[in-house]
Write a structure and sequence with these properties.
Layout lengths: L2 E4 L2 H11 L16 E5 L7 E6 L5 E4 L30 E7 L5 H12 L5 E7 L6 H11 L3 E5 L6 H10 L5 E4 L10 H10 L5 E5 L12 H18 L11 E4 H7 L10 H8 L6 E5 L14 H15 L6 H26 L4 H24 L8 H29 L4 H24 L4
Parallel strand pairs: 1-2, 5-6, 5-8, 6-7, 9-11
Antiparallel strand pairs: 2-3, 3-4, 8-10, 9-10
The structure holds guanosine-5'-diphosphate and magnesium ion.
Length: about 450
Amino acid sequence: MPRLVHGRGARRALACYLSAGGLRKKPRVPPLSDVQILIEDDHYGGRVAVAKAAGGGGAGLVDGGARAGGAAGAPEARPQTVTPPAAWRAPELTVVIPTLNERESVPVLAARLDEVLKGVAWEAIFVDDDSADATIDVIRGLSEASPHIRGIRRVHRRGLAGASLEGMLASSAQFVAVMDGDLQHDEQCLTDMLRILRAGKADVVVGSRYLDGPGDSGLSRTRHFGSRLATRLAKSILHSELSDPMSGFFMIRREAVEKVAPALSHQGFKILLDILASSPTPLRVSEVPYEFRERLHGESKLDAAVVVEYLGLIVAKLSRDLISIRFLMFGTVGASGIVVNLAVLALLLDRNIAFSAAQTAAMLTAMTSNYTLNNLLTYRDRRRRGWRFFTGLVMFAVLCSVGVVAGVGVSTFIYVGEPWWIAGLAGAAVGTLWNYITNTMITWRIH
Ligand SMILES: Nc1nc2c(ncn2[C@@H]2O[C@H](COP(=O)(O)OP(=O)(O)O)[C@@H](O)[C@H]2O)c(=O)[nH]1
Ligand SMILES: [Mg+2]
């Protein structure tokens, strides 16, 4: 099987060569003479350069455009080609299904897709965030039985938006759909969506709960109200008459996703809204109505933190991505720390505790509360659990202490020539930025 490696230049080619077992005496992988390595390389004008084995075991770079055939660059090389099985058709449609603890629903959904998509060259990619109920085992079982089913297992990562995006980027089909794995979305709509996209009438087709009046019987009253409010807000930033911009059920031309992918947030629930708001050129949107069904198995993963993430997404889009959702949440948590600090200080002073002792206790409480909230909200996709929670608290404390020193240093320097409040604000800004950047890179780094 060819190995696909993204990268640039000769160093990358060397890395590919080494990873293919180039310098090993007993290669774990097939010898280089049997391996063809494809490298996406900007130096070749966007074309694909092919590094492949020469007869004697050396690797060379061959211009993928003119010489990929091998004749001019490396006559002795034997590129391998992949021949599809006779009855096989490349998928035209990929249905991406993010899952978290959905083991009961997954087989039912797979069977329904199989029924609805008869005659279509389709595949389903389930993207599972290492569910505790081992949903991935069920998906693997289905893959063994059907060529339509694939599964991606993500570890140490959480988030519906990120999972959906990774699923879409794993597709090579012309069209990709995203739908929930809990059977709440109506799979019957998929054929209508596909028809509209095939006809070139739209770039995105959205499954809407509100096109035929209130069709969200699957939501509780509070969520119904919240969903309506969030929809209003979304419409105002999109300047669009889309009836359900909060929908998690849609089909889109993959090309449109590829363009906008680097600008999308991995946090949050609202990937469609993010795609529509971030697209460099306005996307043509069409809607099909569907009725949001009741959940039969498992439970909703939507919690209060999702609301905060959603507001963060709105502000990020309003600021044209100048302020990231994460930074906004970090700043808001930081501001809540001031309130905690003052409240505890007032409480302790009221009990006649000496000021320095009271302020020390108040600051420690505020710092612990900031850390806990950040762990719950700002970095929920990288949440530290168990003993890592406590080691994280120590890291957070150390990094934030350095932030205080940096902030005080900057404000003292500025104070000489500027009003006190400008010096104070500058110090706070430097401290916050320091805390945010270092904690993102160290305390909550992706591992
Ligand atoms: N991979 C992944 N899937 C998720 C995550 N959170 C929710 N899901 C899946 O996304 C879909 C919608 O989530 P759900 O909790 O039903 O949201 P609701 O329908 O708005 O209540 C379901 O298939 C969930 O299993 C996550 O963090 N990662
Ligand atoms: Mg659901």
